[in-house]
Amino acid sequence: MIYANPVRVALVSGQHYDELGVDYYLSPAKLESDYAPVRFERELRLFREHCRGGAVLDVGCSSGAFLFHLKQNFPDCYEVVGTDVSGAPLDYAESRGVPVIRGNFLEHDFGGKGFEAITFWAVLEHLVEPGRFLEKACSILKPGGCCVVLVPNMKSLAARLLGGHYRYIYPQHLNYFCKTTLRALLTKHFSSVQFQCTHFNPIVIWQDWRRGGEEISNEDRAALLRRTTRYKQNWFLKPVKSLYGMSERALGAFYLADNLVAVVQKAV
Q: Which of 55, 125, 163, 231 has the fewest CB atoms within 10 Å around its CB?
């Protein structure tokens, strides 16, 4: 297992994410991308395969975009709520009609409430104790309920080519997973694990190689997210998108794509 040590106190307490709330998570480029209809297409397809309805909790929900899209696409299927430590993004989520729970997930008393599904979209890599979060999630899932986890893939093509120059090796990421280590963590708390390897952004590889390890600003991260989202929405790029899709599936088959996605189930 690859992990950061030591870890800044602000990253453990959540203070760091409160400070980033306005500058990054609520930047116009980030919000435009997160709330674009194409933003969570893969995630929604995957989620629907494993959960067709019921109560859904998104841990680390940020501005609430995933839950917003889930309700927009399937308005009568789900009862949704998000939780996070970053106040300003939660204010924005509420403004878009997404119910939220504020504060530390580990300390919150759900009062016997159970969920059909709990999601961790790009969250476990930010946590100093990811095992405790999964243990808590398992405790509030209903029997047969599922937990969906997405993390960066430390054995991706990008990570292999760029090493320490890869932009996703940075202070906010405290854990770096591959399929083996993620499986080992998940099977401590859940009975079955299904894996996928997805997402591929060749622009990241090109930019990070050119920069030679230079730190990527939040403004640049948001700008790239906006650009790639617009590419996805551009009808004239449909042939390019088809080729891209083939490349992504090929890399995913060999677990070389950018992200690992695991779906685990609580025993009935």
A: 163
